[in-house]
Amino acid sequence: MLDVSSHKKVVWTVAGSDSGGGAGLQADLKALACWPVHGCSAVAAITAQNSVAVTRVDAVAPELLDAQLAALAADLPPAALKTGLLGSAENLRVLVRWIDRLRQNGPLAVVVDPVLRATTGAALASDELRLAYLTELLPRTTLLTPNRAEAAALLGWPALNTPAEVEAASAALRALGAQAVVITGGDAVGDAVGGAVGGAVGVAGGDEGDSASAAHSHDHIDSPHASGWLSSPRVATPHHHGSGCVFASSAAAALALGHVAVDAVVLAKMATAHGIAHGYPAGQGAGPVQPTPGFARQLAHLPRMGLPGQGPLGTADPALAFAPLSSPDLGLYAVVDSAAWVQRVLAAGVRTVQLRVKDPQQPDLREQVRASVAAARAAGAQLFINDHWALALAEGADGVHLGQEDLASADLGALARAGVRLGISTHSLWEMCRAWALQPSYVACGPIHATASKDMPWLPQGNGNLAYWSQLLPLPVVGIAGMNAQRLTEAFAHGAAGVALISGITAAPDPEAAVAELLAASVAGQQQARVPAPPWPRPTLAG
Fold first, then answer.
1. What phi, psi does 193 have (nearest 5°)?
2. 447 preceded by cis ω (within 30°)?
3. Are 389 and 401 contacting, i.e. CB atoms less than 8 angstroms apart?
4. CATH fold of the domain at 10-281
5. Using CA atoms in the order 376, 404, 457, 299, what is the torsion angle rounded to 10 degrees?
6. 212-215 — which CB contacts under 8 Å span 24+ positions?
7. Are residues 47 and 227 in contact, defined by beta-carbon separation less than 8 angstroms?
8. What pLDDT sits at residue 186?
9. Which of 99, 150, 163, 391 places its Cα 20 to 30 Å from the Cα of 481?
10. In a 10 Å sphere around its CB, with 0-12 CB exposed, 13-18 middle and 19+ buried, how is residue 418 labelled?
């Protein structure tokens, strides 16, 4: 029997065929070809269309759709499935039955792009089909990807004109059973949407119509792991046909590879932005997008994500321009829990230190911060105070390090205006997008390896993710967790600007000897040739 253990993950697209080649199944397969997955297609509807008009749409017979899905299931069972134009309520029910059968044999991610109308405004879904989406398909949906018009149509609402209405619609659609919902903003300023079988323009759109918002694409994600607004500079081009298909298919590929929904949306947004940037004219109307490999290595397409409760992000706030590090080569980065340890590692030769006192009620906390600040200044070292930002500001500390859970409560503007350097912990794509929105002095990427120092749900990111972020971002990146001398050398070879250790120093039998060994390993790693980064980061949470 053929060994399939090393085969690529299979992703199905069940959608309409676009005779003009710009959207639908044709766009889906182009998008899937940019990922390490195998794309399969089942035709649910056939359209007669070109770049300017849709002249006919016919759903295939339910028996024919069933036969296609049966043939695929017998030989090419999917890890993820993406829907587009289904054509009829009967075809939707055929698909629902197959989703239930497939899930009896293992996990299956289902991405639903609810194509309800054509660019011309022609309706592509009956009331029966709309009701079937709500009552039969949404409860089986892993990720729903409507644009604003489609989300409003699904819910029977007049329109979604404000961020508050978009957020309410996301919540309402999740309440109907979708595990995660992303409402894209490509149709928010009157753009033509992706096409008869295309769906939303996932990246190219703007927002409420003011000049700042119109320059950006704002998508709202509501998911089990994170919710908020993802914003990217708008790609100025008329050639966006099929962008919704590329967005949904890319998200399906990312889910098949193990990413959770919010990270899959980040990657889908990057893939679609890159595809729109490479769109080209074909015919007299909007030309097709052209998804290409390498999309995730383009910093310009990395979206910024707002903090919880924050609205769509426009142009970056200049008040949040954090000062650069006094030395971007952080080197060995010791994380310790007292001023005495700060002084000890400084004496041993460390020049980047974090004071991490977990108990905010520790009676001598202020004295610990004050003594640590004085010791670091005397040694010409960089010191970061973990979490206790107000005390760090009051005591004149040069740097603060914050976890994601502290970003919403810290007075980031006060820190930036005072010239305090900011480091931010990140563990996933969406957390990196939140950090990127704030333009910190550096970011920490972890856990690189498994660690017992902190109970976290995250999978080890590995040196591949460390190399990816180190080479993508114009910021110093610190690797953290599970480090020893050998792993520290590897981390620097993968591009880290610094490597953080806790127990590798403080729990060592001879901390001074450990520091000497680690400093030597740092130099060795920094002298090695840089290891190339992978095309995109690996998953960091179990789905």
1. -80, 175
2. yes
3. no
4. UDP-N-acetylmuramoyl-L-alanine:D-glutamate ligase (3.40.1190)
5. -100
6. 212/314, 212/315, 213/189, 213/312, 213/314, 214/189, 215/314, 215/315
7. no
8. 72
9. 391
10. middle
* pLDDT score at 411: 95
Burial 286-323 (b: 16+ CB within 10 A, else e): bbbbbbeeebbbeeebbbbbbbeeebbbbeeeeebebb
Name the strands in the sheet holding 80-83, side by side, starting at the edge strand that comes first in the sequence. Answer: 54-59, 37-49, 9-18, 80-83, 109-112, 143-144, 180-183, 216-222, 227-233, 304-305
Enumerate the CATH 3.20.20.70 domain ranges in the chain, comma separated: 318-527
Start-to-end CA distance of the chain, whole Å, equals: 30
Could you say which residues of the chain have pLDDT below 50? Answer: 1-2, 120, 190-212
Question: For position 377, what pLDDT does the model report?
Answer: 97
State residue 124's pLDDT score. 62
Q: Provide the residue type at 145 as one letter.
A: T
State the Rg of the chain over Cα: 25
Model's pTM, two decimal places? 0.93
Q: How many residues does the chain have?
A: 543
What is the CB-side half-sphere exposure of residue 219 using CA atoms within 13 A?
A: 34
Token pair for residue 374? 């004085």
User: H/E element holding 444?
Assistant: strand 442-445
Taking the CB of residue 393, how many other CB atoms lie within 10 A of it?
18
| CATH, range 318-527 | 3.20.20.70
